[in-house]
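**User:** My hope is that you can spare some time for a protein that puzzles me. As I understand it, each token names a local backbone shape. I would be glad if you read both lines and explained how they fit together. The protein I mean follows directly.
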Amino acid sequence: MPAEGSTRPPMERMWRIHREISEGDHPNCQGLAAQLEVSAKTVMRDVEFMRDRLGLPLEYDAVKHGFYYTGAVRDFPVMKISQGEVAALLLAQKSLEQFRGTTFERPLACAFRKLSRSLGGDMEVAWHELEGALSVRSSGTGLADVQVFDALAKAVTEGAEVELAYHKLAGEKEEMRTVQPYHLGCIENQWYMFGHDGSRGAVRTFALPRIRGVGRTGVKFRRPKNFSLAKMLEGSFAVFEGGRARKVRVRFTGVAARLIGERVWHATQKLTPDPEGLILEMRAGLSPDLRQWLLGWGGEAEVLEPEELRRDVARAAAATIAIYGAASGPGGKD
């Protein structure tokens, strides 16, 4: 790749032209070209863009042989960005950590670098100042193999069928699968591949950390027009398909009630104050990740309905108590 910065970015050039004109110096194409280290034709194209696309009142003075503004211009339109917007951009950049080490890391970093440079001198808050003030932290980040990710990303974009070794969550050993990958998605800090599994004859979900040895079969395919990840996971709590979406009601008490009220946990959720805390209602399938999430709140979460989920959580909680009770000795006490 050519060395970045060998020429000034277009927005930086236009900001410099704007500054020269605003100072009343009546700069011309030749002078600006020498200053910006570009051709006079490039400067003329920048000037035309500023006048025709950005709507700046820019004209040429034949007497003074230079450009000037026919009216007051307070700010360069493209450069105006608030401190909150700069902070949002930085947080977005930090939120892309799941792409680190993949083929997307370099182009994404390059795009953010160009964007920050295009803000020019009007930016009141420096990136390095915000670096120390804002951060994004995630727990339980997935450990997908970079080579697996790259191979699947290319297969998805190129419509190439792949063969891979996959270790099911409850399986004892890896199985060979032939898959037409439709989509890659990062859900709850974990990367998943969604595609048509030839041996199952249906669309399945594959966790990238459990995939090994991706290779192409040489078969090309077209992703079905009716494939929709949103529709596929419509009844899910997170990534596991839980079947038909059903009404789920859970009462949260104590600290859990306060924490539940501070986030959006599901797209269909409704929160209702309760004398004992807070009731969360949503429509979701009875998937394993929903059960695990409920168990994580301990005694401060009580499933009110459906009864099937209530019994399922109760059995899991009883199994946990049995483990700790046995470890505690007779009577369940230390």
